[in-house]
Amino acid sequence: MKFEMPNSGSPRSSWFGRWSTSGWMTPSLIATVCLILALGSYEHSQGNLHRLRATSTNHVQPQGPGGQDPIRISRSLRANGDGPEFVSATLLPGRGFNLWQLTASLPGRGEVSLLVSPPVSQAAQILSGLDNDDNGSASTNYGGAFLAPWAAQLTGFPAPGSGVLQTLWEGQRLTFPASIPGSPISTEGLLLARGADAVKTSSLPDGQSAEATFSASSFSGNWPSNTDVTILVELSGHSLDLTMTAHNTGDTSEPMGLGWHPYFAIPSGNRAQAMLVIPSLNLVEAGDRSTGVSSGRIIPTQGTSYDFLHASGTPLGHISLDETYVNLHGSLISDGPIAELRDPAADYGLRVIPLTPNITNLRVIAPEDKPWVSIGPNTNLSNPFGSEWGHTDMSKSGIAILKPGESMQWKVRIEIFSLTGPWRPSHNH
Prior knowledge:
mainly beta; Beta-galactosidase, Chain A, domain 5; 2 domains; nine-stranded antiparallel β-sheet; six-stranded antiparallel β-sheet; 4 helices; 26 strands; about 35% strand
């Protein structure tokens, strides 16, 4: 006798029973799984897989400018230190290794900032690549920006339909971005917004060092050849050594200039009593200050308000400076010319010492209403490809020519000292 299961009267139960015994159940389940996997693969390729997940994994992203975290090198103070000492340096590898902060311990004042810049936490917002930071321009407003493949300003004329500027070098057209849209003035070099390709730190007997390497190629197609730039910063108790090396890795010659644009703070805030020592009695005559183009003439400063050669310093008073000093005087007690910023109210002094002979000039900027001074050691003068320097000999402007495989080095030492204590200067220059 054949027995049959009672019919519940449910259409669903009847359908499911027939489907489950029909032989289609297994293929249908396999097809469903394949469809789900295919959907997941597609959403992953579209960057939407996280929307299908009930939970997601949070990845920590670099928070610094240019997508790279700041690097801080530091040292411990001497146990019986009774003079000023460097404490730390903070650099931005995502923005041309800008020396964003430099701190020191000053007797009676504690740890102070020696460079003018906002807190590191605000750097990414300021150096965003937008608005006033188009092409990295904001990097030259804070800290200490390293400059390559030229230093200071460069002027040009608009390249048709491209929105960039251009100039001529040995019959070749060089292109470069304007500092702001529509301006005939460039940014200060092409390293400002570039991120480092490699960074390393090392220990020193009395501090630390940090080194960044930039495989700049042709600087985004703006330069005739390919270039690697390396920047080394070495921090110790009383000195900060800065070394920049440019190496032509391409197969054709290229022009090259290197420099630095620091904003040295006046710790006391009393700008009028701050004193300068500039080892020169000549400066480049200004032509059009709105563009930074000079007349190309070298004029004397002796006996004028622009004479800061006196070894013990000359008060800034109420003069505003934006000058380029040339024909730098060497020093008998140093490996290079010595420029100084002194703040008697803070018993503090800072020396800027060019250590490579290709540093031909100091660009000094000191607005009357600002508590800072910029002393920029550069290998080239402003607008180095300009007609004011002549078209036949670019060396007059300080621009070097690097052949394939050649390198050039720029090196500067920053020293800290007390005006009255044991680390006071004991020499004349």
